[in-house]
Amino acid sequence: MKPVASTSEQILDVAQSLIVAGGYNGFSYADIADAIGIRKASIHHHFPTKAELVSALVDRYRQQTELGLKSLQAQSASPADQLQSYVDFWKACIGNASLPFCVCAMLAGEMPMLPDEVASRVRGHFHHLAEWLTSVLQAGAKQHLFRLDKRPEQEAQMLMASVHGAMLSARAFDDPGLFAAIVEPQIARLRAPVR
Amino acid sequence: MKPVASTSEQILDVAQSLIVAGGYNGFSYADIADAIGIRKASIHHHFPTKAELVSALVDRYRQQTELGLKSLQAQSASPADQLQSYVDFWKACIGNASLPFCVCAMLAGEMPMLPDEVASRVRGHFHHLAEWLTSVLQAGAKQHLFRLDKRPEQEAQMLMASVHGAMLSARAFDDPGLFAAIVEPQIARLRAPVR
DNA sequence: GTTTACCTATCTACTAGTAGGTAGACGTTC
DNA sequence: GAACGTCTACCTACTAGTAGATAGGTAAAC
Known about the structure:
The structure is a homodimer of 195-residue chains.
Chain A: H1 7-22, H2 29-36, H3 40-46, H4 50-75, H5 79-95, H6 103-109, H7 116-142, H8 152-172, H9 177-191
Helix pairs in contact in A: 1-2, 1-4, 2-3, 4-5, 4-7, 5-7, 5-9, 6-7, 7-8, 8-9
Chain A binds a DNA duplex (30 and 30 nucleotides) through helix 3.
GO molecular function (chains A, B): DNA binding
Pfam family, one (chains A, B): TetR_C_13
DNA-binding region (chains A, B): 28-47
């Protein structure tokens, strides 16, 4: 039995799924209030402003991500397996529609009109993810698991863009399988044995 | 001297730049009215509802795209050059911030909450672009300009995802140069000479 | 007895959309 | 060529509904 989430966690849960569906301007306090059966004013008690709510949301998301990526490193020593697990995570999310899009990718699209405090946090997530991917690629190259055509930083950026672009395509074509069809060949290319 | 655009064209121009900045829910009739110096009601005269406005916008965008891609085919016989020109177009747009994001990529992110009439048009643009890329890759492969590891449809999807993901990253990192850094190696990979 | 978590009630600003009117351009018809 | 109706493009003024946010109160917990 899963313990009942606190109200503030419920608020963030609902807000997250609404943002994933429609972005920063795609949800309102009323939407959240209706979804969890409290009043709008009660949400303001937990998160005085919308910018603070979404900032807290991105902070939590980044914390979860950090934890998740660390546990990947703990579970599998091989950088190749770590990378595959990362992709598999999103494959599952998109497949079962539980989290069919990255919150930060969604918000990044709206960057020009996000409150500064939110925008900087989103940028922070992108930096963090790029660094993680870079380090995994670097470690894999050292163990001759990966063949990198470019500097690891650049390969990491290419991979990240593929993942986000694949999410978008899966959504645009309404075809969850498209995500794997796009991303898998990209990591397969990296794993190709040295010629 | 450029002829003065009609009011309805001006409305679509402003709406497009606002959508590119903040998506479907990121602009209002009042924003457009203020920008071009007319009243809200006058916009409703040209486009009765917001869904109709954005539908017309996507129709126009797709028409422009179709024209642009056709002229690429007319200008350069080589599929390799066509592909490069396509990427260069976006490189320039992102570089000078004139159109730093694809309207349809922006809207695709918000797919789950778009009016049906808009969503289907966005999907249409994605299909059309995927088909164009597929045909260019196919033609290039026939002329031995490209080496395709996968079926041309799949390579087209991978390329498209790279382009959209690269747009997102350029925006997230606030680094226009990142677009080329991500996309160029992807097309270089396709152009690699047969081993 | 202060803090926490919620409530009702309300506010101002803004949302898309409507009703109805005006002024000029266009084309007929006498 | 003047008078007529119609059409286009815009306007002012308004609606009902929603946005985020606030004030102030209640009731239970620590």
